[in-house]
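JOB MANIFEST
job_type = single_chain_structure
chain_count = 1
residues = 154
[input]
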Amino acid sequence: MSEQSFDQETTPLDVARTCAALYSRVFSRLVTRHYNHHLSDTGLRITQFSILNAIKLSPPNSINELAELLGMERTSLQRTVEKLISKGLLQSQPTGHKRSLGLALTPKGEEIYQQALARWEEAHGEFTDMVGADDWSQTVGKLRRYSSKLQSTL
C-alpha cells in the first residue's frame, strides 16, 4: 500500500501524474511510431522485426516459449507469426520435442531481416542520441528489473 491516507481520495490528477500504465503506454506508442517510421520501407513493423530478431537470437521450441520471451499473449503472437509465414519470411519446422513446431527465418526472411536491421540501427541511433545513451542504458536495466518483478506476480 502507498503512504497515502485512506481518508484521502485519489483524484484524476493523481492518476494522470503517477499512473505507470499510462506513461509506459504513451512512451511505448511513441517509440513504436519512431521505429515503425524507420522500418516502413522494409514492409515490417517493429513488432514483426522483434519477433524475427528473437527467432534469430534463439530459435524457440514453441510459440509459447517465444511468447514468454517477448512478453506477448500467445494468441497475438500466433496471428503475427502466421502473417510472417504467409509473407514467406518464416517457416515452421518440427523441433523433435513432442508435437512442437519451431520457427526459422526463410532465405527471404533473412534478406528482409538484414534490411530491417540497418533501418533499426538508424532508428536506435536517433533514439539514443535523443534520450542519451547512458540514460537509456540505465533505463533498460531498470525496465528489465521492473518487468521481472511484474512477471513474477502474474
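[summary]
The two ends are 18 Å apart (CA to CA).
Strands lie at 90-94, 101-105.
exit_status = 0
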